[in-house]
């Protein structure tokens, strides 16, 4: 028989004291200013392949000029980088929250097949960048014979 009777809420008292202590101090502001903005943003992408090409579709909302995006294609990777700038209609000190990304972005995506840098086509529509890269015929799958001893 235990000497101390079981009290199911004893552990919760400790948590309550910690939370009271946390909220009684000067609570940090939850608004994000320039010092908290991400410097590096990676765009989300879908990559798939067809018989003749590899296709990458990337979400890049807010691009206003084609000079703001740079695309580089290697045999096994696609690199997309650039800058998103927003025009300020409201003075910065009036913002309560600012969640839309502004600044540089960079992403290197490994590709599922070898591609040629010639014949690459890129289109940007409704905030989505689509890059179509033709496959090279260099890497064809072949069956490997196994030697059994």
From TrEMBL:
In this chain the SHSP domain maps to 35-149
Question: InterPro entries annotated for this entry?
Answer: A-crystallin/Hsp20_dom (IPR002068), CS_dom (IPR007052), HSP20-like_chaperone (IPR008978), Small_HSP (IPR031107)
Residue span(s) of domain CS? 40-149
Fetch the Pfam families from UniProt.
HSP20
Q: Which family does it belong to?
A: Belongs to the small heat shock protein (HSP20) family.
Name the UniProt record assigns to this protein: HSP20 family protein
